[in-house]
Design a protein that fits this description.
Membrane topology: Peripheral membrane protein
Subcellular location: Cell membrane
Domain AAA+ ATPase: 157-302
Strand order of the largest sheet: 6-5-7-4-8-9-10-11
InterPro entries: AAA+_ATPase (IPR003593), FlhF (IPR020006), FlhF__GTPase_dom (IPR047040), P-loop_NTPase (IPR027417), SRP54_GTPase_dom (IPR000897)
Largest sheet: 8 strands, mixed
Distance between the termini: 22 Å
Shape: globular
CATH superfamily of the largest domain: P-loop containing nucleotide triphosphate hydrolases
Bound molecules: guanosine-5'-triphosphate, magnesium ion
Function: Necessary for flagellar biosynthesis. May be involved in translocation of the flagellum.
Radius of gyration: 22 Å
Oligomer: single chain
CATH topology of the largest domain: Rossmann fold
Length: 350
Amino acid sequence: MIVKRYIVDNMQEAMVKIRYELGNDAVIVSQRKIRQKGFLGFFKPKKIEVTAAADDKDKKSSKHAVSSDIEKEIAELKNMVENLVKNNNKETKGTKKSQKIRIKENLLNNDVPEEIIENIIESIKKENGDGKINAKNLEKLLIKYTKELIKEDDKTDSRVQAFVGPTGVGKTTTVAKLASLYSLYKNKKVGLITIDTYRIGAVEQLKAYAEILNIPFGVIYSIKDIPNVLNQMKECDIILVDSTGRSSKNAMQIAETKKFIEEIKPDKISLVLSVTTKQRDIKSIVENYKMLDYNNIILTKLDETDIYGSILTAAYYSKKPISYITVGQNVPDDIEEANSDKLIKLVLGE
Ligand SMILES: Nc1nc2c(ncn2[C@@H]2O[C@H](COP(=O)(O)OP(=O)(O)OP(=O)(O)O)[C@@H](O)[C@H]2O)c(=O)[nH]1
Ligand SMILES: [Mg+2]
């Protein structure tokens, strides 16, 4: 049995974290209101402490654990697929059209664009040929093709990492969370840099985190500052570079950021995206930001929605792996390494 405690702002946030970390079978053991001292030393009233528990698969014998893992995986999608075929069983035997409609409905409910759904259905059809498809095969193929689309990042701790993306998605907060994780938990020497000298207060926002963590902080005002600022951080194992939020509709602005990024030459560029963004906007963001040659995606604000189709949309149109997800405003707690199996479950639903 795994028992885990969560300090959250509301129950929705708790449910997202619990579902993501402990799985759908987790149960809530207790919940209570507490006063919590936040990372920044602010007292934030009205936090909720939620304790949840779930079966610990690792504790079971390995043979049992392996088979129960498979069983669980199958069982988890079984419900959904049974729903796809249940009432229609007679008609659907051999008639792929009805199944197609059901898959479509389920994914459309989760706000997955039709183009992606058609793509998945086509892949399933191709693999299955013209033969009849049963519920078990269908669920396997559905997982298989979704898995091909949603990849997780290789999790290498690259030295210079830049964070780009639209305004207000949580870039600076994510940089602060990662800086804390690297310096507090991974014992790395971290340096923070911002090139966001455009938005009022942006420099101070990141500088405050650097001061709390007692780590070097640099500001790049113009391209000629870059060698100096990077040189000041030559002792650092990890350098995180925050950037100005840019509308994906403004190619000029993105090109401006590109000039800085090209000169900084990061080892890793993360596109930061909020899952609360409209589907059509996600498509244009991941496409227009390709100009910056980002190599992974960070998805933010998973705590703010129950509809997770945007995870699939971002992965599908970007063809990039997902490195982290963030699930709240708390620094440094509300960030997790992306796990494709968990993300797929969120997208496909129960
Ligand atoms: N609910 C929720 N809020 C978040 C999350 N990440 C960031 N935020 C909030 O989103 C707001 C914007 O965060 P910032 O980090 O300033 O966003 P940004 O992308 O740096 O914004 P600009 O620099 O203005 O483009 C803040 O109120 C954050 O606390 C998250 O995972 N969940
Ligand atoms: Mg910012």
